[in-house]
Amino acid sequence: MSIASAGPVSHSAATGIEDRADRDPGSAAWPVDVRERILAEVGDFLAQVPVARWCPPDVPDVLRQYATGGKCLRSTFMYLGWLCGADADAAALRASASLELLHAFALLQDDVMDEAVLRRGEPAAHLRLSGGSPPGGPVVARRFGESAATLLGDLCLVWGEQMLRDSGVDAEALSRVWRDYDAMRVELALGQYADLGNDIRTRPSLEDVLTIARAKSGNYTVARPLELGAAMAGCAEPTSTMLARYGLRIGEAFQLRDDLLGVFGSAAVTGKPEDSDLGQHKATTVLVVALECADPGTGRELWELVSRPVLDAAAIARCRQLIAKSGAPERVEAMIADRVERAREDLHQWPLPRGRHDALDRMARLCTARQL
User: Fold this and answer.
1) Cβ atoms of residues 100 and 112 within 8 Å
2) Torsion over CA: 233, 236, 241, 242 (sign)
3) Three-state secondary structure along 227-294?
4) pLDDT tens-digit profile of 239-297?
5) What CA–CA distance (Å, rounded) separates 231 from 183?
6) CB neighbours of 206 closer than 8 A, spacing ≥ 6?
């Protein structure tokens, strides 16, 4: 049995996708075309993956949700890293697309650890898979769903490496990737581990929270994928260093934006419950900044609320009001703008092939844009 229904239209059936993805990276349509091609490649791969007969019947649809339902930021940045040192190439794009499976692994396990309810506007995987527990089986439905989602994440981790290894990129180019690829996966896991104890009630500093955010999300979204693509293409060290510096700043800006969305974003935009960060006592940059810069009365009330064992809907709504009153959203917006501007300044001081500056500029705006 294969997961033929898990992905979008297959690459072989998607006439014209390849040509559009190979157009000038500086064009406004390029990120959309590349995302379509990436999703087609992932769909093709998943259509050939065997699934054991005892897997829950929802597995194909869960893989569609987690592996082919995103913005493809990581895969696009990896391919951009490649394009900073080489021409458009189908195998390099396929290799980059493999990061969608690595990302699916991270999301599946993150949702289990956070006891998430929604992912991309649909029930989280562990909730969907809980219905696959056989009646009278040794594991209750909730635990079955959590275990099934964790194991499906493990499979995505394996499949991601398999798709990269079998992408068609030559062995010499891939040999330049493996060290950084392994380091990225270790950093992701350690960042997630640190996030397990990332509770605002421990009063972490802003730098503590940013350090966890870089490891868990920021670096893994922008800097590391760019480095992988540049290494695969054999970019010169100065180019790789420039991309790493750009990636670190844009990755931080991405996480800062994600933290703002976690407090003020709607479920329609984030695909997650509107109370997830505050309700879970997450120590995000927005909340830490609010506690640091609020006036004494606002700070005391906010601290009293977030220190409660459980925050109900009224408490969460009041937290939002107090965070807004503290001036934290404006300060975090300024932090985002500063990082994007510094990244763009560094970027334009270094020569790159035609269209690459524009593509990196556009991707920076796409992953840090205000979406509240």
Assistant:
1) no
2) negative
3) HHHHHHHCCCHHHHHHHHHHHHHHHHHHHHHHHHHHHHCCHHHHCCCCCHHHHCCECCHHHHHHHHHC
4) 999 999 999 999 999 999 999 998 998 766 666 666 678 988 989 999 999 999 999 99
5) 14
6) 285, 288, 289, 292
Reference 67, options 88, 82, 49; nearest CA is: 49
Over its C-alpha atoms, the chain yields an Rg (Å, rounded) of 21
The span from the CA of 120 to the CA of 271, in Å, is 4
Q: Which two tokens stand for residue 167?
A: 């992408």
Can you tell me whether residue 2 is helix, strand or coil?
strand
The first and second tokens of residue 127, run together, are: 């909730």
Tokens representing 14?
A: 């998607």
Amino acid at 60: P
pLDDT for the residue 273: 66
Start-to-end Cα distance in the chain = 42
Q: Is the dihedral of CA 268, 270, 273, 278 positive or negative?
A: negative
Cα distance between residue 16 and residue 264, in whole Å: 39
HSE, CB side, 13 Å, CA atoms: give it for residue 284.
26
Residue 215 · residue 185 · CB < 8 Å: no
Quote the pTM value. 0.90
SS3 364: helix
